[in-house]
Design brief:
Helices cover about 40% and strands about 20% of the residues. It is built from 13 helices and 14 strands. It has a seven-stranded parallel β-sheet with strand order 10-9-8-13-11-14-12. A five-stranded mixed β-sheet has the order 1-6-5-7-2. Strands 3-4 form a two-stranded antiparallel ribbon. Strand 9, helix 9 and strand 10 form a beta-alpha-beta unit.
Length: about 290
């Protein structure tokens, strides 16, 4: 069982300094470690295993949080994580949030090689191409998880999966499904097509209407949705790679949908069509 260290009083402790540096991408990449803040993320990290090993390696917790979330601290200890009881100032110094919740985990990278995702013959995939906002990336990952997607792919032009805002926005979904990172969009599309997956690009100016695609029963097969940049969508060269460019219909007076909302609509449309065709598990299955 992992030991509990004495309270870390000094923010200049070597372990605290090492954890604080993980807020920066270059240090995350060098150490292949990232931060997961809050009870939900830490609980999911403690439960996650990759390549037979535990994902959560350290947990910083205030005394108050250790008492309030004793079950989570116990799960972290059971996973082999080293537990550090820390002062409020120490946790605040590591945290990247305005109001820390008293639990910050240090986790191993957990991205999955793209080839492994293809070998698993996924039925529903979200591809984030040119997505730069970490909050949007994390929220789309959460939507993909909720819709029962089999994997998420972040292209090399998208934000860092382990950006603290992306991790928070995923609300634990980062630990639930395979995610490949740094894949060139051309390689992602080519690999998925070769695996028999239909590529749909989501774009407000798309030639195909999502409602029409559903009415034609064209959505029940294996599908990958490609989502673009928050401000300018998908570039023409990326749209050209898709089997179809699909728009979410706007029935009211709204100018458009934001990225995460559009992604949720598209992913759930595919999930429902796949369930109806008997080819996909229920998105309400626990």
């Amino acid at each position: 069982m992992a030991p509990v260290t004495p309270e870390l009083i000094s923010p200049r402790s070597s372990r605290v300094s090492a954890a604080r540096r993980l807020a920066r991408r270059n240090f995350r990449g060098k150490e292949r470690l990232f931060l997961a803040e809050g009870p939900q993320a830490v609980r999911e990290a403690a439960a996650h295993r990759a390549d037979g090993g535990a994902t959560l390696v350290e947990l910083f917790t205030t005394l108050d949080a250790a008492e309030r979330y004793a079950d989570i601290v116990g799960e972290a200890r059971g996973a082999g994580a080293r537990i550090h009881l820390a002062s409020d100032d120490v946790v605040a110094g590591i945290s990247t949030t305005v109001t820390p919740q008293g639990l910050i985990g240090v986790c191993r990278f957990l991205d999955t090689p793209f080839e492994e995702i293809l070998q698993a013959r996924p039925r529903l995939v979200a591809v984030l191409a040119h997505v730069r906002d970490p909050g949007n990336a994390g929220t789309v990952l959460r939507c993909a998880d909720a819709a029962g997607a089999d994997a998420v792919v972040l292209t090399d032009a998208s934000v860092d999966l382990y950006n603290p805002k992306a991790v928070r926005a995923s609300v634990g979904s980062l630990f639930h499904l395979p995610v490949a990172v740094g894949v060139p969009v051309e390689r992602a599309v080519a690999g998925l097509k070769a695996a028999g997956v239909r590529i749909l690009a989501a774009d407000g100016a798309g030639e195909h209407d999502l409602d029409d695609e559903l009415d034609k029963h064209a959505m029940g097969g294996r599908t990958a949705w490609v989502f673009g940049n928050e401000a300018w969508g998908l570039p023409e060269e990326t749209r050209a790679l898709a089997d179809a460019v699909v728009r979410v219909p706007i029935h009211g007076k709204a100018e458009s949908l934001n990225l995460a909302t559009a992604a949720a609509v598209c992913l759930y449309a595919s999930a429902r069509a796949q369930r109806a065709s008997g080819g996909c598990r229920s998105v309400t299955q626990s």
